[in-house]
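Progress against Task 2.4 (sequence-to-structure conversion) is shown through the following example record, which the project officer requested during the mid-term review.
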Amino acid sequence: MSTTREPERTDAARRAVIFDIGGVVVGSPLHAIAAYETEIGIPAGFVNRVVVDTGSSGAWSRLERGELELDEFFLAFDEDCAAVCPPFSARDMMLRIATIAGPRPEMLEAIRRIRARGLRTAALTNNWRSGEPQMNLLGPHFDAVVESAVEGMRKPDPRIYEIACDRLGVKPVEAIFLDDIGRNLKTARQLGMATIKVDDPAQALGELETLLGFALR
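C-alpha cells generated for the chain above:
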C-alpha cells in the first residue's frame, strides 16, 4: 500500500465519515491530561512535549502501537518524564483519562443519521489494548473500526488512514475525517480528505452538516 502518492484532485462526492474516538466521540483525554498537569504543578503541555520529543521509540507511541501493556507503560512513561518531572505518575494520569471517556450523545446521534443516509462511518483511533471494552461498546455504531493497538501503527502514519478507507471501500477524497489533534488532521488532508478539528463538538457538527448538506442534530 503506497504512502507517497499525491492525493487525487477531484470533486468526488463524500461517501464516508471517519471519526477519531477520544476527544471526538467520547470526552477528551487532552482535558484530563491538562487537569493533571495543573494538579501536580507542572507546565501546561508537558505531557505532549514528552510524547513528541520521545517520538516513535517513546512509551506513549509504543503503547498506542500495542507494544506495551498498560502496566509496562506506567513504568516506561514515568521514566520518559523523570528527568524533567520527578513527581509525575502515568498511572494517576491514565485514571483521570478513564473518568472522562464517556460517549458524547450528540456524536452518536450524528453517526446514526449519517448511516441512515447511506454513508459509511469508521472509527480511527490511537488507543491501547486495555481500551477494548470501550471499543466493544462503540463498535456497533461504525461500519469499520481501526485501532492503532491492533494494527501496530498509529496516526499520523498515512498507512492507518488508508486502512480505514480500504475497509470502508472509499477513496480518501471521498471521506471526511474528524480529530482533535492538528498533526493527525494534516496527514488526512495530504491524502485528500476533508478535515474538521474538534475543539467544540457543537461547532464541529455544524461544520460537518455544511459538508454533508443535511442535519445531524
